Amino acid sequence: MSIFFAQADSDVPTGDTLEVYVKGGDASTPDVRRAMERELGVLMQSAGFRVVWRDASDPPSAAGAEHLVMVELRGVCTAQFSSTASTPLSSPLPLASSSVADGKVLPFSWVDCTALNRFLAPVASNQLQAEQDDLFGRSMARLLAHEFYHILAQTDDHAPSGIAKARFTTADLLAEHLDFQAFALERLHPPAAVASSAGSDGTSAGGR
């Protein structure tokens, strides 16, 4: 599904391993990659998942993981706001998406870094480069967390607010905090599953 521009509860189980295999990570700078991994790790931990990062060429772990997702970073995944500020997105193009087949959300997601640059540039180009890199990596993480919600919950439902909302604005991606809300947490960990242990879309500047 696609994303266009546009807290963890105490009873949520933790510890499910989510292995994320990344293709195209060499197109991002270390600062952007660190910001992305840090933000996504915090977001997924709040939803009850422990992220383990892998390169796309790495073999699957011997022990296996409860969940596995393949991520493709498309384009140059670093903040280039000054060069793209003059060419903002004129229509809501997908910023991120996941594959769907026969009604099932597949564990294959991508982020369009070129579109993300153009989306963020008009409101973030005046920041220092270090701050731009941090904002870019954090935005990538939020797009991916949205996609992971659809994959892990196997749903195309959206939440009224938070990471699982239907459309993101620049304010959503640049805000200090954007979390999974109760609606999304309940779909990631249905009540029956929670009791026994004690539903992709796209992300766009604006929807699925």
Structural class: alpha/beta
Write down the overall mean pLDDT.
83
Q: How many domain modules? A: 1
Widest sheet: strand order? 3-2-4-6-5-1-7
What's the helix count?
7
% residues in beta strands: 15-25%
CATH top level label: Alpha Beta
Distance from N terminus to C terminus (CA atoms, Å) equals 5 Å
Task: Describe this entry's structure for a reader.
- The chain has 208 residues and is α/β, with parallel strands linked by helices.
- It has a single domain (2-205), classed as Collagenase (Catalytic Domain) (3-Layer(aba) Sandwich), CATH 3.40.390.
- It contains 7 helices and 7 strands.
- It has a 7-stranded mixed β-sheet.
- The longest helix has 25 residues, at 129-153.
- Residues 4-13 and 193-200 have low confidence and may be disordered.
Question: What distinguishing features does this structure have?
Answer:
208 residues, seven-stranded mixed beta sheet, 7 helices, 37% helix, Collagenase (Catalytic Domain), alpha/beta
Write the layout of secondary structure elements.
Blueprint: E1 2-5, E2 16-23, H1 30-46, E3 49-55, E4 67-74, H2 81-84, E5 94-101, E6 104-112, H3 113-124, H4 129-153, H5 170-174, H6 182-188, H7 191-197, E7 202-205
Parallel strand pairs: 1-7, 2-3, 2-4, 4-6
Antiparallel strand pairs: 1-5, 5-6
In short:
The protein is α/β, with parallel strands linked by helices and 208 residues long.
